[in-house]
Design a protein that fits this description.
4 helices; 79% helix
Length: 85
């Protein structure tokens, strides 16, 4: 009985995923940076990234923003429960 339920749920998830994929495959590529990325010289960007690690800076900024957002969410929840002032 458990195998049937797991098989059914896997089939359901697969059909939902294929439906979402078919919907998004009809949408044209509207990325505004696509033409900008094609005009840049990748060697120049690799050299610049060696001196200024842009990708690592973006990762750190994302982590910082998630931490700040989590802090605000927890503080709001604690205020609702009257745990803090």
């Amino acid at each position: 009985m458990g195998d049937w339920i797991i098989g059914f749920l896997n089939g359901l998830i697969e059909s939902i995923g294929s439906g979402i994929n078919s919907v998004f495959s009809g949408i044209p590529d509207l990325c505004p940076f696509h033409s900008f990325q094609n005009t840049l010289d990748n060697e120049l960007l690799a050299t610049l990234n060696w001196f200024v690690p842009i990708s690592e800076m973006i990762v750190m900024l994302e982590l910082w923003l998630v931490a700040i957002a989590l802090w605000y969410v927890v503080s709001i929840a604690l205020r609702w429960f009257k745990a803090i002032q």
